[in-house]
Amino acid sequence: MTSSFRLGYVPGVTPAKWARVWAERLPRTPLELIQVPAADGIGLLHSNTADAALVRLPIDRTGLHAIPLYVEQTVVVVPKDHVITAVEEATLDDLADELVLHAADDVLPWESALPGRVVAERPATTADAIALVAMGTGLLIVPQSLARLHHRKDLTYRPLLDAPASQVTLAWPEGDPTPLMEEFIGIVRGRTANSTRGATPKPEPKKPAPKKRTTQQPSQRRRPPNPRPRRGRR
């Protein structure tokens, strides 16, 4: 295979481990990585700009296949001297009296209102919101990977136990997957290089049954004829 495979991904998702496996198995087929904002991941597929994309749910699955891969831990980003750093884990109730920022590109599937006192003006991006946390304007709730992506020395984060979580998914256009798509699906699912999708081992040919040795039963064995008694001389 010499053609390339184009993989889109959104911020926080790190395809590096899968890219390494790809390079080992398909050294002559380049894996082209395309990073886009979270809202544009599915657009790559509809515009045929990428062959597959690592995106976050929820998505519009119309015309797409999707395989859920993993669920991320949600965290709250705070200044290092914030009171929440005194605990190892926090809950939504712990944020009841806190100012909370809500970035316009938030990827968490909130089904109810955010906790705390939500700041009315929404930062345009998560990066902007992180900068505001550093200024003491409020706290920010994000997937852990985004907290790591925008790491700052003056900030830290704590797991938020009862917050909604972000699920990362592999999506690609409907239809029969190409051989390269099959290869990448196998990689993200952890299949080995020698395994094949849906392959079933061929049954071994039946060995001919060994011939039975026929043995005569004792009752069926021929007895030697009894010698005739000799007649005595008269």
From TrEMBL:
<dbReference type="Pfam" id="PF03466">
    <property type="entry name" value="LysR_substrate"/>
</dbReference>
<keyword id="KW-0238">DNA-binding</keyword>
<dbReference type="GO" id="GO:0032993">
    <property type="term" value="C:protein-DNA complex"/>
</dbReference>
<dbReference type="InterPro" id="IPR005119">
    <property type="entry name" value="LysR_subst-bd"/>
</dbReference>
<comment type="similarity">
    <text>Belongs to the LysR transcriptional regulatory family.</text>
</comment>
<feature type="domain" description="LysR substrate-binding">
    <location>
        <begin position="18"/>
        <end position="191"/>
    </location>
</feature>
<feature type="compositionally biased region" description="Basic residues">
    <location>
        <begin position="208"/>
        <end position="234"/>
    </location>
</feature>
<dbReference type="GO" id="GO:0003700">
    <property type="term" value="F:DNA-binding transcription factor activity"/>
</dbReference>
<keyword id="KW-0804">Transcription</keyword>
<feature type="region of interest" description="Disordered">
    <location>
        <begin position="190"/>
        <end position="234"/>
    </location>
</feature>
<protein>
    <submittedName>
        <fullName>DNA-binding transcriptional LysR family regulator</fullName>
    </submittedName>
</protein>
<dbReference type="GO" id="GO:0003677">
    <property type="term" value="F:DNA binding"/>
</dbReference>
<keyword id="KW-0805">Transcription regulation</keyword>
